[in-house]
Amino acid sequence: MTVIRAARPTDVDSLMVIEADSFPTTAWRREQMVDELTRDTRRYLIADDDGRPVGYAGLFLSPPDADVQTMAVAGSHRGQGIGTLLMQELLAVAWDEDCTRVFLEVRADNEAALALYTHFGFLRLGRRPRYYPDGMDAITMRLRRHEPVPLTEVPGV
Ligand SMILES: CC(C)(COP(=O)(O)OP(=O)(O)OC[C@H]1O[C@@H](n2cnc3c(N)ncnc32)[C@H](O)[C@@H]1OP(=O)(O)O)[C@@H](O)C(=O)NCCC(=O)NCCS
User: Fold this and answer.
1) What residue ranges line ligand 1, CB within 6 angstroms?
2) What pTM does this model have?
């Protein structure tokens, strides 16, 4: 069974495997991951499948704003709702920590992530040309607490 729990510094090795697999050209170094997991302003969550981390997501808290720092699910576990669970819990943390807006950046060609964020009601704010090292643009998105999902953002409507 997969549960969502707070990340611990001892998760770092498992996370680095998922990180390297999920972000082949932009993976964080181990020291960066350790730094993220231990900073006061960060909150990292783990999707734990019977004791094995299979996904993670992190927030930078700066109330009233929060930024999604990263999010990844192991390739073997994608498409099973784990990303959705992680985002639900991440947003619960943001609202609980008195944030009212959550921001993120996502590669313009990352259809899976864009669809996931749109499901949660994130709206596109803008595009940052050539933001990533390989020249891909970034899409910036924002979710406001209690913001309804606009009809134009609901797939199939
Ligand atoms: C993005 C990611 C975290 C989604 O995790 P996941 O556990 O597969 O997501 P879920 O199973 O909860 O799917 C949630 C929604 O995402 C969208 N989605 C997931 N996989 C998709 C795919 N391959 N293509 C299009 N949409 C997809 C769907 O809208 C899906 O909702 P639905 O099942 O109701 O159609 C995962 O694909 C991943 O780790 N990718 C590599 C790392 C990455 O890109 N992280 C995001 C950086 S901004």
Assistant:
1) 22, 71-73, 78-84, 106, 110-113, 115-116, 119
2) 0.93
